């Protein structure tokens, strides 16, 4: 049986392992940590359970597809519910807005709270759908680095909508053109942060993201986001995938420009015809492939933003909060200037609070809540994080206390913190960037590393640092593209 190795048990690596096992390979997954998940992991603290990384789940069909591919029924392993309320927004001027998933309901709420006609909001969401449908089949579902992609009929579908794709303008400029209300523009601009980018630089093509939430829906997995990784690992193991933990890959072995296997930290040499790196592509080249000339232009693309997260056990309930809550800054432009130009944290950051105990009460003790409190921050470039964490903690507490009209600090019973240095240490993500390279320019999609390299036969790449990008759905799609690229084991 031909052998494949996947380096890293992040969501992309787990999905790739499933696809290769279904294809007929004997698959080993080497994971540096003592468990799977990468950024998608969990921990418990004083009776509170926290999803450590991702909290928003869209496109669940990409998870379901893996079970179907393996001939299983997804709901036997993994259940999720569609959210009626996606996000509770708190604007700096005191306005509160509930973002319902259903477009008509959302548009009615925007009309009532922000005095923007519901027809305009609905029209915007229809346009968002058109951008998604014109671009996704080519830019997300296929390799951008193979001629076949450009010969497919899908490319033709983008032609009629080219003027709408917004390739020559920024998200913010496009949103400002559509809406005068600064609050609604801020709400729409926020979608740039879904892949760690800056709405004042990222192309307006990213205005396809609202379609994912408001037309296709946002979801909550039973048991929290970690349940996605758990259920997929269960499936992978049933398919015979072998997970080796505390087994850091140290070198990808090659001979005559072909992969032959991997050497691990335990000095074990594991042979394989196929190697898939789910490790961030920068350390993959720098650490595991020292013999290869690295694609410097690609590796030096600007990194996405990172995050600073405070995980708080809160010993009271806040009825006005939902699963996802956003407390906006007063001036978004200044906030993004701090992140991307000054490479520091704004003194008035937008604060995101995720509370899974709203839907999974077992995640917190009785009458308590598990708060995941996150601000977008620059990736690590040597800042004094200890100081930034200290200052930002005070800013965040004061901001939330003002918005919720109560001293939040008084209810924090336990705390854990994750900053860009911790994110890099725990997941090997270069500079602690959450989504690999940023999408802050119009060529970003083409400058991300492909899912293969023409320099080494048998070597592939998946996960958030390579095409098509970061975030759970795109990592799953990267694994799908790898699954399509890898030849069948019976091929010569
Ligand atoms: P990673 O999660 O990066 O895992 C890589 C794995 O490789 C790790 O387990 C690591 O230990 C292992 N590894 C590295 N080097 C080696 C080696 N040499 N040998 C063996 N193993 C190695 N996405 C969303 O869709 N929605 C969200 O709401 C969201 N919010 C986020 C919030 C935070 C705080 C973070 C950190 C991320 C968030 N994301 C979100 C992004 C999402 O989590 C990631 O894009 C995705 O989980 C990355 O998966 P991956 O496949 O790239 O692997």
Polypeptide structure, described:
Belongs to the carotenoid/retinoid oxidoreductase family. Pathway: Carotenoid biosynthesis. GO terms for molecular function: oxidoreductase activity. This protein is of the alpha/beta class and 492 residues long. The chain contains 17 helices and 20 strands. It is globular. The two termini are 13 Å apart. The protein binds flavin-adenine dinucleotide (FAD). Flavin-adenine dinucleotide is lined by residues 7-13, 30-33, 38-40, 53-56, 248-249, 278-279, 307, 309, 423, 427-429, 434-435, 463-464, 470-472, 475.
In short:
The protein is of the alpha/beta class. The chain has 17 helices and 20 strands.
Topology record:
Layout: E1 3-7, H1 11-23, E2 26-30, E3 42-45, E4 48-51, E5 57-58, H2 61-69, E6 80-82, E7 85-90, E8 96-100, H3 103-114, H4 118-140, H5 147-151, H6 153-158, H7 171-178, H8 182-189, H9 209-216, E9 218-221, H10 226-238, E10 242-244, E11 249-255, E12 258-264, E13 269-271, E14 274-277, H11 281-288, H12 296-299, E15 306-314, E16 324-327, H13 332-341, E17 351-355, E18 369-377, H14 385-404, E19 412-418, H15 420-427, H16 444-447, E20 459-461, H17 472-485
Parallel strand pairs: 1-2, 1-14, 2-10, 7-16, 14-20
Antiparallel strand pairs: 3-4, 5-9, 6-9, 7-8, 11-12, 12-13, 15-18, 15-19, 16-17, 17-18
Helix pairs in contact: 1-10, 1-17, 3-4, 4-9, 7-8
The structure holds flavin-adenine dinucleotide.
Flavin-adenine dinucleotide (FAD) is lined by residues 7-13, 30-33, 38-40, 53-56, 248-249, 278-279, 307, 309, 423, 427-429, 434-435, 463-464, 470-472, 475.
GO molecular function: oxidoreductase activity
Pathway: Carotenoid biosynthesis
Keywords: Carotenoid biosynthesis, Oxidoreductase
